[in-house]
Each structure stands twice: as structure tokens, then as C-alpha cells.
Amino acid sequence: MQTLLNRNVLLGVTGGIAAYKSAQLVRLLVKAGCEVQVVMTPGAHDFITPLTLATLSKRPVLTELIDRNGTGTWNDHVHLARWADVVVVAPATANTIGKMVHGLCDNLLLACFLSAECPVFVAPAMDLEMWRDPSTRRNIDLLKERNIRTIGPEAGELASGLTGEGRMSEPEAIVQELISGLLGKSKLSGRRILISAGPTQEAIDPVRYIGNRSTGKMGFALAEEAALRGANVQLVTGPVDLELDRPGITRTDVVSAAEMAAACKQMAAECDVVIMSAAVADYRPAQAANEKMKKSGGSLEVPLEPTEDILAGLGAAKRRGQRLVGFALETDNELAHAKEKLVRKNLDLLVLNSLRDPGAGFGTDTNKVTLLVPGTDPVELPLMSKAEVARAILDRLEELL
Ligand code: CTP
Predict the structure, then answer these.
(1) Whose CA is nearest to atom 16 of ligand 1?
(2) Which end of the chain, N or C, is less surrounded by CB atoms within 10 Å?
(3) Given the CA of residue 312, which atom of ligand 1 is nearest to it?
(4) 270 phi and psi, to 5 degrees?
């Protein structure tokens, strides 16, 4: 099953009997790899305890905009809405749907909804007559007009004892709808994509090597996200401490720049997209010693020779329709160097890292990058997790496919 790895889900729970299913929904979303922040309306507290949802989501449940105990604290709906990659309201009562449509925001969930710019999904749940009522029908139409996606409701036995339309969709079905709604239309689905990751190690002798500080986190995040979008990923990685066991990813481990070049060149011919995120050594010892080098009193010189620039070679051999993404790590005159690299290596997209930014670069879980596409202005992204950066890179790439 596809997952929603690393998505931030703001789950709104409103006051209807179907709120008992929200516990299972939280469980499934967490299992699918999401961070879940539950926001309950005051009415929802009559149907399910915050403790249940807080325990399952591993986060305190929020309800109030303002702390009524006079502490002067409040829940920042704007920040919550920006944090969310998707807002899901399940169950959504007729009352909350009506308020959403009319822009009312007398509770935290509605204030978050009104601030949200991400996709919103609504799973209505109510009794048959309420669902059929012309005002509900009109409100649902208005939601759809505003590109808010509705899931269900299903027909069946209702809590009132009546039978008909109004049951909230099952949590499994809601998660499936979210997956297909958020990922289903990915242009990467079914495409073959080569991603290189990690450092290379260039042997000096059987014991020592020249390496760099790359940990492979960025490349692995890209591989996971691409697989999530249905791509068939070939991951070529230098020596890293990372594990990955996800359907859709075939991993090839290499050590040196020469091994990485051989693997990438062979696979690139078959791929629609190549992303070179590996920190490939630019130089290697001209002659690796067969035996361990013994120290001598004086200084040591190890002659180096250039390695093959894999990306430049792939750029020169780029097929029509193939897309090539490179990385650049610059410490000075960043944009000028990056622009020059974009052209020289015949790239469609260049991801510029700056080591100057705190939280960006090697070993961190966050990164701060600028995306460069030929003929357009560079787009500087804020500091984000590497998973979020991976998504931003692939979103931009999809626009180029
Ligand atoms: N790269 C590569 N083969 C190499 C060196 C780098 O394919 N031998 C790729 C990297 O994977 C990255 C891009 O080239 O996508 C940029 O590498 P970088 O080291 O920043 O630039 P260089 O072209 O090596 O130029 P310089 O070191 O002079 O900045």
C-alpha cells in the first residue's frame, strides 16, 4: 500500500456519533507515516475523549483558540494551518459544514480551516434527513465549488436506526481517498527515476580513503518521496548509515566515484529522470597503494587526479524528454556559480545548498535550498525538514515533466 509518509495532517473531529471512528482514523494515519494533530470542536468532546485521540496521535489535542484559564496563552491557528499539508474533517457534522461554507470561525478548527491553503477533505456524517435537507445539499455543492473534496457519506444503517445515506466513510476508505487525492495524480507515477545519494570514498590504501561529510539523508528522502508518488526508483548510494525498505526502490551500493559513475551511466540510459544528489569526490588518489602505507618522518604528498563528472556526462548525453536534476553546494557567490553549473551541465533543475545557512547541509535533518530552473527566477525555500525539501524538489520537477 502507498503511504502518506511525513505528511502533516490536521484532523478536525466534530460532534457526531461517528467521532468514535476518528480513533481508528488517527491510528491508520499514524501507521501511514503521518504526523497527526487532532483539533476537536467543543461538541466532539461529548462523543470521544481527547485522551484517546491524544494518546493515539502522540500529541495533545487542541480545541480552544484561547486558554480560558486566564493564562494568556492561545493556539495559533495561522501557524497550525501553515504546518498542515492537508486538513481532514472527519466526521464533519452539518453544523460544521454550514459554518465552513459561510466563513464562520467560532472555534479553533474553523479558524484553522479558514486560514488553510492546503488541500481540505471533508467526510460528512449525519442522519438521513439532515443529509437530504436542501441546506446541506447546497452547502456540499458550495464546498465542492471551492475545491474542497468530500469523502462519502456511505449508505447503510445509521445510528438513529434508520437506513440510508449519511454514515461516515470507513477510516480505511478515508485514508485511501487521501492517498489517491494527494498522490494519485503524480506525474512521477510509473516513471523510472535514478537517484544518487551519499558520499564516495576514494582509496588511498586498503585502510584509508578520501571522503566527505555527506550522510545520504537528502538522497534517501528523495528516493522515499519518489517511490511514494509511484515512481520506480533506482537508488545508487555511496557508503551511508541508512536503511531503506520500501517497495518501488531498488538499491545499489557503491564505494568510489568510478563505481558510482559506472552504475549511474548504465541506469540513466533507461530512466526518465536522473537526480544526482550524491556528493561525488572531484579528485581521487592517482594510485591507491596495495599495502597499508607506513608512516615516515617527513610530510606526505598524495598525488590526486580528477574523477569523472558524472552529472556533466549525463547532461551531455541527455535524451529528449529526459529530465536531469543536479545539486550544488556553494560557499561564496552562490547564485552565480549555481547558474553557471545549470547551463554547463545541461540541467533542467538545480538544487542549491548553502553551507552558510544554519540547519542546512551535511548531517542535519533540515535543509535550506534554492531551486533554479533555466529561464525562470531562482526560488529560495525556507528552512524545512529534508522530507519537505524532497517534496518541494519533486513538486517542481513534476511541473517540468
Ligand atoms: N557531481 C557528479 N560527479 C562528480 C562531481 C559532482 O556527478 N564527479 C554532481 C553532484 O552529484 C552534484 C553536482 O555534480 O549534483 C554538483 O557538484 P559540485 O561538487 O557542487 O560541483 P562541481 O561541478 O564539482 O564544481 P565545483 O566543485 O567546482 O563547485
Answers:
(1) 328
(2) N
(3) 7
(4) -100, 0
**Domain with residues 192-281+305-400, CATH architecture:** 3-Layer(aba) Sandwich (3.40)
Read off the pLDDT of each residue in 294-301 and give the average, rounded to a whole number. 90
67 alpha carbon to ligand 1 midpoint, in Å?
52
The string of DSSP codes covering 174-208 is HHHHHHHHHHTT-TTTT-EEEEEESB--EESSSS-
More confident residue, 232 or 360: 232
Which residues carry out catalysis? 212
- Name the band, by pLDDT with cuts 50, 70 and 90, for residue 1: very low
**CA of 307, closest atom in ligand 1:** 8
Q: For residue range 140-164, what is the model confidence (pLDDT) as tens digits? A: 999 999 999 999 999 988 888 888 8
Q: What fold characterizes domain 8-183? A: Rossmann fold (3.40.50)
Q: Where exactly are the structural domains of the chain?
A: 8-183, 192-281+305-400
Task: Give the residue among 247, 154, 148, 243 at the shortest CA–CA distance from 197.
Answer: 243
Question: Does the fold of domain 192-281+305-400 match that of domain 8-183?
Answer: yes
Q: Which residues line ligand 1 at a C-beta cut-off of 6 Å?
A: 257, 276, 278, 280, 282, 307, 309-311, 326-329, 341
Which tens digit of pLDDT belongs to each residue from 343-359? 999 999 999 987 777 77
Separation of CA 328 and ligand 1 centre (Å): 7
Whole-number pLDDT of residue 29:
96
Residues 91 and 13: beta-carbon distance below 8 Å: yes
Its pTM stands at 0.79
| Residues 6 or more apart in contact with residue 32 via CB below 8 angstroms | 1, 3, 4, 5, 175, 179
